[in-house]
Amino acid sequence: MRPARDFFAPLAVGAPPPLREIPARPSRAIHFFDPSNEKMAGKVPGMVGTVDVLLGNLEDAVKAANKEAAREGLVRIARDTAGLGGEGAATQLWTRVNALDSPWVLDDLTRLVTAAGDRLDVIMVPKVQGAEDIHYVDRLLAQLEAKAGLERPLMVHAILETARGMANVEEICGASPRMQGLSLGPADLAADRRMKTTRVGGGHPGYLVRQDPADGSAEAIAAPRTSYQQDLWHYTIARMVDACAMHGISAYYGPFGDIADTVACEDQFRNAFLLGCVGAWSLHPKQVEIAHRVFSPSPEDVAHARRVVAAMGDGTGAVMLDGKMEDDASLKQCLVMVELSEQLAAADPALAERYAAAQAEQEASA
Ligand SMILES: CC(C)(COP(=O)(O)OP(=O)(O)OC[C@H]1O[C@@H](n2cnc3c(N)ncnc32)[C@H](O)[C@@H]1OP(=O)(O)O)[C@@H](O)C(=O)NCCC(=O)NCCSC(=O)C[C@](C)(O)C(=O)O
Ligand SMILES: [Mg+2]
């Protein structure tokens, strides 16, 4: 057993001390690209400053024959792209390494950390099953950081894509001070759970509830009745959000594979935002704008939240605002919104302007 006082001790001689708190940086869209795909990789420099996170993907969706080219391509991009990755960069640089049972992951970690570790912010680990997977990566990263002389520890993000990973979600979040967050991996998770879907994220028209029949007659049962499609991922996301909140780390939706259906993508992202997630993945350039918009609280909501904060004075007691009761607990919800808006506005001048305009409009109408 590791004693509590050693939780924040470096796991290798010469490795940087682990962070006490995960820095709150905007990560509304984690944009995936394949560094071995020249056309896609060529778009990366132009995306710096326009997307919160660029992620060089080395795992699924990269052909086995291209694994080494992807790894080397990512090292080149990390070294050569101004403003990408590292302390204070306009856009964070993350990677998704290959799975821990694959023949590639040891070289992925060794090469990336020693050749470009100072430019990488977060390492996403797929198919995490339990704390033991995080412990393995934790120690290895410490050894590599010491070897590379890094001064800033790398953070780790786990993808939940197995039933075992879901069952162990709390211990995964608390396995290391490196833990930055979790994402839902809906395709692998569906397969592992033996769900009967064939999509990457999103709903399914067969997963629904139907209005009761008017009576028990055969005619009423056969008559058209309203049905409502349900969210297949509600339980999983809510569970993931609780585990992350308990450990002070961030939850993310993951991918939405129907690139053409921008409307359903927005709906799924918004559900995740409302339930407590801070971002989602973008697989195609057109999903970046959706994620940035959906995971930024709306200017109207922020202006309203500020009114509640002002009306609550010292933060105790109950007041009436627009016919609604506000008290200590609604104040806390409003503070979540205000703090997130301030954090995002600090890095997004266009959003800051929209917040200021909504605030001015609200003050003018008061
Ligand atoms: C879906 C695909 C095949 C459509 O690719 P396309 O070329 O057919 O699309 P397009 O609409 O024709 O592309 C328009 C332009 O955008 C470019 N482009 C297109 N995508 C990107 C991109 N991401 N980043 C930068 N540029 C991009 C593309 O090269 C093209 O450039 P051009 O106008 O100069 O010809 C392509 O977008 C793609 O490969 N995206 C990434 C897919 C990916 O990373 N998948 C893995 C994550 S999901 C997952 O792993 C599951 C999970 C979590 O593990 C689990 O649930 O279990
Ligand atoms: Mg997967």
From TrEMBL:
<feature type="domain" description="HpcH/HpaI aldolase/citrate lyase">
    <location>
        <begin position="30"/>
        <end position="199"/>
    </location>
</feature>
<dbReference type="GO" id="GO:0016829">
    <property type="term" value="F:lyase activity"/>
</dbReference>
<protein>
    <submittedName>
        <fullName>CoA ester lyase</fullName>
    </submittedName>
</protein>
<keyword id="KW-0456">Lyase</keyword>
<dbReference type="InterPro" id="IPR005000">
    <property type="entry name" value="Aldolase/citrate-lyase_domain"/>
</dbReference>
<dbReference type="InterPro" id="IPR011206">
    <property type="entry name" value="Citrate_lyase_beta/mcl1/mcl2"/>
</dbReference>
<dbReference type="InterPro" id="IPR015813">
    <property type="entry name" value="Pyrv/PenolPyrv_kinase-like_dom"/>
</dbReference>
<keyword id="KW-0479">Metal-binding</keyword>
<dbReference type="Pfam" id="PF03328">
    <property type="entry name" value="HpcH_HpaI"/>
</dbReference>
<keyword id="KW-0460">Magnesium</keyword>
<dbReference type="InterPro" id="IPR040442">
    <property type="entry name" value="Pyrv_kinase-like_dom_sf"/>
</dbReference>
